[in-house]
Design goal:
Quinone Oxidoreductase, Chain A, domain 1, alpha/beta, NAD(P)-bd_dom_sf, about 350 residues, globular, 12 helices, five-stranded mixed β-sheet
Length: about 350
Amino acid sequence: MVIILLADAKRFAGSRTFCADEVAAQPQALDAIGAAAVPLAGITAWQGLFDHGRLQSGQRVLIHGGAGGVGHFAVQFAKAEGAWVATTVSSSDIDFVTDLGADEVIDYKRENFEDVVEPVDLVFDLIGGETQQRSFSVVKPKGALISTLQEPDKARAKAVGIRVGRYTAQPNGGQLREIAQLIDQGKVKVVVASTFGLAQAAAAQAALKEQHIRGKVVLTVIKQPAASRFNDEERRLRAYQIWEDEGRPDGQDVAHWYRAGDAGATAQRADYRRYLRGTAPTGSLVIKFYHSGDQIRGYVRKLADTDTDDTIFPGEEMEPEAAFKLAASHNANSDEPVFIELVEGVEWNSAWGRLN
């Protein structure tokens, strides 16, 4: 069996062809579910720390979001390399990351990390937003601030004499083999929070974004029946029925639905448009905001065809500013609107812009 990194948009695709140098043998210490939790998160952590962050033994690193899927690997990889590791987490995760080997743990809800952490050689940012901005103050001269989310401020980096960068993980079989070796040596453990069947992919995504998940969530794949195909009219009616079943607003009938779904129906678009399931065309970007404790967090997805799953862009509980910037970086056509979905209880902040 091999473990595979899916670094492209079709994360839940039923099959894909890979080059030999993109895959590696499953670690002997793991079963199939544990192995499935490794590739994307593991490679993201590895490349952020070592390829982009250039972390070396004896150096100091601050990892924002050390209890998440990418973060819990990053803490362990850095320790295995011989680095000193600090990480920011919520109070419920302090014992967890301490057990992973973190040398200093900061409860981000009770302490400002910049007030307690001595300067570090590398900040590995999995949060973005204000957290990223505050991180400049704790990086040593000639150090680095590396993010999986928005691009850090290059002008500010130049002024304080540090390197910055944003990256997307790339397939690398050699790095997967190094990670597998660490796992088999007992230097890295894989934490699987829960598993879902492929048919429950939406529930898995909701759990990741709306619950506090420690470690990784894994989808178990079984043979799926062939998806039926719909023409555009059938798809619109099907989407409208879903919308209606979930509680459409009074007075918004199928004619309203059609007008809302017509591309270019509004001559002048606002900064953002409110998302209701089925109202946005395929390929649209949607930012969903939700509560994480007493904080507002978000993630970005790209709407797929009805027959396939949406693309979820990587991000560990992004602050609103980071989510907006990540959406902007993926919006190939700036004339197309970005849609906003608000979980019940989350109110739009006018400082974020206009919302129609």
